[in-house]
Automatic annotation (TrEMBL):
The lineage of its organism: Eukaryota, Viridiplantae, Streptophyta, Embryophyta, Tracheophyta. InterPro entries: DDP-like_NUDIX, NUDIX_hydrolase-like_dom_sf, NUDIX_hydrolase_CS, NUDIX_hydrolase_dom. SUPFAM superfamilies: Nudix. This is Nudix hydrolase domain-containing protein. GO terms for molecular function: metal ion binding; pyrophosphatase activity. GO terms for cellular component: cytoplasm; nucleus. Signal peptide: none annotated. Its cofactor is Mg(2+); Mn(2+). Keywords: Hydrolase, Magnesium, Manganese, Metal-binding.
């Protein structure tokens, strides 16, 4: 069950050496029309949201990491609250140190990839935020926070590396096939090669 109310208050907020600890996710998914001829970066898209306070640019979901939750639970919660998507949290992209625009608050930010499996029709901040699926190239232009752009590049590097390994494996398996042919399912970097069915036996032909 997804709670349709965002957490409020900062009495449980975590700090590290005076820096407020925040955590978030870069939600991503593979494109339905992905094939092996596409550029690795074009195989997937990411989800950005509008800021709570109206302004220029977009951002990835993030918020405070609280004392009664693990860092992964906090990342998943913030992503549901702000972007209304659920999925698998993957290995952390990194830790960033930054300040707000006024320079009077210091932060320690942690970002994770989230492979999206479900988009909710209702979520806690539906009425104050919009969400947008877009290409990596578009996200680079529209993301308003520098540290999030760095996290995006970390994700791109990781996923494109996985795509290249997948392509090499797919082509290798096709070339090793006894018939020299195979069928590639277009499932992004989770693609599979299906070997052709065996030839019918003499009994089946009869």
């Amino acid at each position: 069950m997804v709670v349709l109310v965002s957490r409020s208050g900062r009495h449980l907020q975590r700090y590290n050496k005076g820096r407020r600890q925040v955590v978030g996710c870069i939600p991503y998914r593979y494109k339905d029309n992905f094939d092996l001829s596409m550029g690795d970066e074009d195989a997937f898209e990411v989800l950005l949201i509008s800021p709570q306070r109206k302004g220029k640019g977009l951002l990835f979901p993030k918020g405070g990491w609280e004392k009664d939750e693990t860092i992964e639970v906090a990342a998943r919660r913030e992503t549901i609250e702000e972007a209304g998507v659920c999925g698998d949290i993957e290995g952390k992209l990194g830790t960033w140190y930054f300040e707000n625009k006024n320079g009077d608050t210091a932060y320690e930010g942690h970002m994770f990839p989230l492979f999206v499996k479900e988009e909710l029709d209702l979520w806690p901040e539906k009425d104050i935020r919009e969400r947008f699926w877009m290409s990596v190239q578009e996200a680079r232009k529209l993301c308003q926070q520098g540290w999030m752009k760095e996290a995006l590049e970390m994700l791109v590097s990781r996923l494109t590396s996985q795509c290249r390994r997948t392509k090499i494996d797919l082509f290798s398996r096709i070339n090793r096939g006894s018939s020299g042919h195979g069928t590639v399912l277009r499932l992004g970097c989770r693609a599979q090669v299906l070997t052709p069915p065996p030839p019918p036996s003499p009994a089946e032909e009869a």
